[in-house]
Amino acid sequence: MSAGQPPVNSPEIRRLSPVLGPGHTYASITDKISSIVLTRPVSLGWLVGFGICFCFIMLLNLAVVYLIGKGVGIWGINIPIGWGFAIVNFVWWIGIGHAGTLISAILFLLNQKWRTSINRFAEAMTLFAVMCAGMFPLLHMGRPWFFFWMFPYPSTMKIWPQFRSPLIWDVFAVSTYFTVSLLFWFVGLIPDLATLRDRAVSKPKAIIYGMLAMGWRGSARHWQRYQSAYLLLAGLATPLVLSVHTVVSFDFAIAIVPGWHTTMFPPYFVAGAIYSGFAMVLTIAIPLRAAYNLEDFITMRHLENMAKVMLATGLIVAYGYFFEFFMSMYSGNQWDVFLVEQRLHGPYAHYYYALILCNILTPQLLWFEKIRTNVIILFVMSLVINVGMWLERFVIVVISLTRDFVPSAWGRYSATFWDYAVLAGTLGLFAGLLFLFVRVLPAISIAEMRELVAHNSEEHE
Amino acid sequence: MESRSRIYGVVGEFETPRKLIQAADKARIAGYKSMDAYTPFPVEGLTEALGLKRTLVPLVTLIGGLTGGLSAFGFQYWVSVISYPENIGGRSLNSWPAFIPVTFELTVLGASLFAVFGMLAMNKLPQPHHPLFNVDRFQKHASVDRFFLCLQADDPKFTVAEASKFLKEIDAQNISEVEDD
């Protein structure tokens, strides 16, 4: 906020707070966003940030190579806790991806103007998160080089995947999700790639962006079909995103393990996914707008709206926790009651309490306007919620598996260095891909921002 | 210019979307049929002004979705009932509720692939070069901040002189001929 403007926090101003800073034209928007990619030199901060990510990607390489060499025994998993970190991380990463689709598809269908400047990098976040997520089930298979056994192809073994199994549904859900997210993202990029092609200062850039833009020239005929396809993709992605986490929750809900076998899981997982995803969008948006001076495009209004979505989905998650607890007690089922006791007093109780603190208590601060408009507190809170959602999956996977029906089958689980190495490695991969993304592609949709300018100027006429 | 016969059309530019829509309206009323507008973002009302037909993208998407969904369900039925029937506690082989998730996912996948590739195919993309890219100002501004209207040479009404004059009358700026190469 520049000097001379009224304070951000006064309610009248904030209610009118724009989704786009004042005084922008088609050209100024194009310049500002495309210059990040085309002309801005690599900064020291970017190099250091990417360098750190690169080290973690190398750690991931090491951990994966060692895993393939030695087998999954290097992880903390055992019998009965066969799932461990791999599945915790898988569900966590997939969930993070969901906010990107929510922003790009559902808010598009609802005609929410504030989605415009955050949808591009939120979609990129989705893609990168799904890439990280997809690695875990593959690595967890033990023999990842046979991953194609999960696909139905005519083989000499003459058998097919078990289509009645949620694990096979997962294969289809996650691969469809990745493909559709990629298509959606790429279709959104085409007009911007054409802009970059036309504005590129060097020949190689013009050629690369030109090939990607496929000769887009903004013809009205093209736009008509383009808009139709984009709208349809948004309509298709909306039920898809709900289905993906529903299927992920089926991995649990269809098993008979106490704490998993509940019909509440699909909506509760979807809400949790959107909750953690919005937290991750904030985690990315806040440093991004500071680093590239995008405060005019990613305004306080965006951050506040995202905080409100987090609060709402956080309350749904809290409702889920409460009813998980209530239904176990109300059912009188001894295994379910015992599981609740284990969560409250068992060996992993501290994880459960940390989860309640991160996911239910902390976000209640978002009721206050002062908190919602404080960038630093929002950033810290987004990190806390990400940790909380990871803990939620840990509690679901580990507590249920360590304490099932027969005491002789009980066990303990503790993660090893290699578990943490793979998790940290995927975090590095995720952040590293984002670092590359902001340098090579426009992090904000230029064409859609122009529409916003047109919309604003028509209102003034 | 010697290659008068090799002209793609005449292009003029406008400053705002509204002016472009008005211009397209006038051109349509004047009887121009073969023309196209070029804008840096989708402009509402332009398709009507140009008199464009409805797009086939939704139909193609529907076909894609039906193809994906029907083949997914049919395949699962074939695998579970015909190719490799497994008797699991006497449950019916055609356990259709269990086939719904994959059927749904492939419906969405088929529809999305058809929507995107159908849209690109109908737009005849990728097409790396187009005569309009020969126009310098088109390259610099069509994807940034100007709104172009191109009257095309394949229109029976078209002559270079008349089209240029018409564009001038409707206040187009920087009118230029587009060479077809």
Give helix and strand order of chain A, one letter per element, not per position.
HHHHHHHHHHHHHHHH
Radius of gyration of chain B (Å): 25 Å
- How many helix segments of chain A? 16
Distance separating the two termini of chain A: 26 Å
Average pLDDT figure of chain B? 91
Q: Looking at the structure, what is the overall shape of chain B?
A: rod-shaped
Give the SSE map.
The complex is a heterodimer of chains A (461) and B (181).
Chain A: H1 11-16, H2 26-38, H3 44-70, H4 84-109, H5 116-140, H6 166-199, H7 203-213, H8 220-253, H9 265-291, H10 300-331, H11 334-345, H12 349-361, H13 369-372, H14 375-402, H15 417-440, H16 446-460
Chain B: E1 7-14, H1 17-30, E2 35-38, H2 46-50, H3 57-83, H4 96-122, H5 136-141, E3 147-152, H6 160-169, E4 173-179
Antiparallel strand pairs in B: 1-3, 1-4, 2-3
Helix pairs in contact in B: 3-4
List keywords for this structure.
heterodimer; A: 461 residues; mainly alpha; disordered N terminus; B: 181 residues; alpha+beta; 4-stranded antiparallel sheet; 6 helices; rod-shaped
Structural overview:
- The complex is a heterodimer of chains A (461) and B (181).
- Chain A has 16 helices and no strands.
- With 461 residues, chain A is mostly helical.
- The two termini of chain A are 26 Å apart.
- The model of chain A is unreliable at 1-15 (pLDDT under 50).
- With 181 residues, chain B is an alpha+beta fold.
- Chain B has a four-stranded antiparallel beta sheet.
- In chain B, helix 3 packs antiparallel against helix 4.
- The two termini of chain B are 13 Å apart.
- At the A-B interface, helix 2, helix 6, helix 8 and helix 16 of A face strand 2, helix 2, helix 3, helix 4 and helix 5 of B.
Describe, in short, the structure shown.
The complex is a heterodimer of chains A (461) and B (181). Chain A has 461 residues and is an all-alpha fold.
